[in-house]
Automatic annotation (TrEMBL):
Keyword entries, A-Z: FAD, Flavoprotein, Membrane, Mitochondrion, Mitochondrion outer membrane, NAD, Oxidoreductase, Transmembrane, Transmembrane helix
Keyword Ion transport: no
Name by which UniProt lists this protein: NADH-cytochrome b5 reductase
Organism from which the protein derives: Ascodesmis nigricans
GO cellular component: mitochondrial outer membrane
Positions of FAD binding: 130-132, 147, 149, 156-157
Lineage: superkingdom: Eukaryota
Membrane topology designation: Single-pass membrane protein
Listed InterPro entries: CBR-like (IPR001834), Cbr1-like_FAD-bd_dom (IPR008333), FAD-bd_FR_type (IPR017927), Flavoprot_Pyr_Nucl_cyt_Rdtase (IPR001709), FNR_nucleotide-bd (IPR039261), OxRdtase_FAD/NAD-bd (IPR001433), Riboflavin_synthase-like_b-brl (IPR017938)
Amino acid sequence: MFARTAFSGLRCARASPLRQTASRRFASSGPEEKKSSSPLPYILGAAAAATAGYYYYTQFGPKPLPPAVPTFTEANDWIDLKLDSVTLESPNTKRLRFALPSEDHISGLTVASCLLTKYQGPQQQKPVIRPYTPISDEDQRGYLDLIVKHYEGGPMSTHIHDMNVDQRLLFKGPIPKYPWKANMHEHIGLIAGGTGIAPMYQLIRAVLKNPSDKTKITLVFGNVTEQDILLKKELQELENTYPQRFKCHYILDNAPEGAGWATKGRVTKELLKTVLPEPAAGNNKIFVCGPPGMYAAISGGKKSPKDQGELTGILKELGYSKDEVFKF
């Protein structure tokens, strides 16, 4: 039998607008004077206040944003973007922020999709092209973020890690992966390793930020050490905010002693049997993304971007069918 994760809920209080009332009382100056019962002064005062409030709002209040402009469209033209900033995420992984053409531009990506990058060095006979999934929100204006791990001898990752602020890189997309729709699955299990977290994070964000999407998510995230865990802060915030719908299991080759939040070792058949939704038990889906060794052990690799290949490995042994698994 497979264990099920228990989830609890959160409620947010809604603030009510502050209501302010004002009154003025006048003393009578003589017995012949009568108090006026006319509402006109109050009507005029309210109108003046409303006019003043409207003027203040239009002059100093927040301005509506202009329509967002997609940067990448179905035209799939190569677009060069300027590197805006670089942050070290782990000893061999950087977060790189690229500026979009204007502050009103968004990436234009759909969930789930990625971008292609292109670079040709002076000694290279042909350009190097590699796919990357941005980790910034698809609605984010003005920039997009990548996380890129440096691989020794990897021409694209080496070039990106050597880039300086204000240098440019060519991008093209979006390249569709898995066309997500709200509630298309009851429960999704995500198995990721290293930078394979990027497309998983894109999918997790899209599901959780949509209040009408009730899909439950279980993430199994494998790494070598604690410092190799990418987007750990972001994942913990999502887990704390959506405890009813999102649960993350960290697997580390070298887990710290006494770390109750992580399991030491590799992703195993016993672990997946315990935490994933059962095979053929409903409208569920398992997603896999990681290094070649992880694919070989968990699901088998893809034959090509359009051919998922046969399902093998642990997921096959657990009884999942090819249709229940998607390999990023």
